[in-house]
Design a protein that fits this description.
It contains ten helices and no strands. It is elongated, with a radius of gyration of 39 Å.
Length: 233
């Protein structure tokens, strides 16, 4: 992160949290604009179904982005939406906001959502939400690249949450993740069964020495054998 140091971590924390507040306000205005266009589409347009579905989808996307911007369901977001997780930047958020803004502004060309149909006040809400979404999308992308440090593993979202201690949080998260990976690999190696080939499991052959050559063997004295002496010694 080019601006990550002790002196600028505090201002970066304030700037990024200010952008977060504007993000939430912009997304709320997108939901309001989608609701206005949804009602007008049902009233004016004959083919209102697909237009209505597009407005509902836009509203739900904006609501989901609001949830990711607030400290809600962090574990769920981290496990299922890693590009919007606390350890990621704002690039994905910015791209989605740009797409939402283009979609909002593109609806103004339709008869059901034109200025004459919506009225000046509602039309102003729709165009303002679209422009703000476009601008904030670009701002989030630039902020994600400015307030980060790839060398230290600190993202702009980490700086927004932890401020000057973001570097320590990044180090602790990396150490915990590496220990989890190491324990996972050790568990797999300990739990896997060991297989041996048939040749390895066979009983080893015994080496029997050859008979001794040139050694005379004397017959034992049978005079003291129990069969001859009748068991008497």
């Amino acid at each position: 992160m080019p601006l990550f140091n002790r002196s600028l971590a505090g201002p970066g924390y304030v700037i990024l949290n200010g952008i977060r507040i504007i993000n939430v306000i912009t997304l709320i205005s997108v939901i309001a604009a989608s609701a206005v266009m949804l009602v007008k589409t049902f009233v004016v347009s004959k083919f209102f179904f697909f237009d209505g579905v597009s407005h509902i989808v836009t509203a739900f996307i904006s609501l989901f982005l609001i949830i990711t911007e607030l400290p809600l369901f962090r574990s769920y977001v981290a496990n299922n939406w890693p590009l919007l997780a606390p350890s990621s930047g704002f690039v994905t958020l910015g791209i989605i906001m740009i797409i939402v803004g283009v979609s909002i502004l593109g609806n103004l060309n339709k008869q059901a959502t034109s200025q004459e149909s919506l009225g000046t006040h509602y039309w102003s809400i729709v165009i303002a939400s679209g422009i703000l979404s476009l601008i904030l999308g670009v701002v989030n992308i630039f902020a994600s690249y400015i307030f980060r440090s790839r060398k230290l593993g600190v993202t702009a979202r980490m700086l927004r949450s932890h401020g000057a201690v973001a570097q320590q949080k990044a180090l602790s998260s990396r150490s915990s993740s590496s220990s989890r990976r190491r324990s996972f690999h050790l568990g797999r190696s300990d739990s896997l069964p060991l297989y041996h080939s048939k040749a390895e499991t066979m009983e080893p052959k015994r080496n029997i020495s050859a008979p001794l050559n040139g050694v005379s063997i004397e017959q034992p004295n049978l005079a003291h054998h129990p069969a001859i002496t009748g068991g008497r010694i």
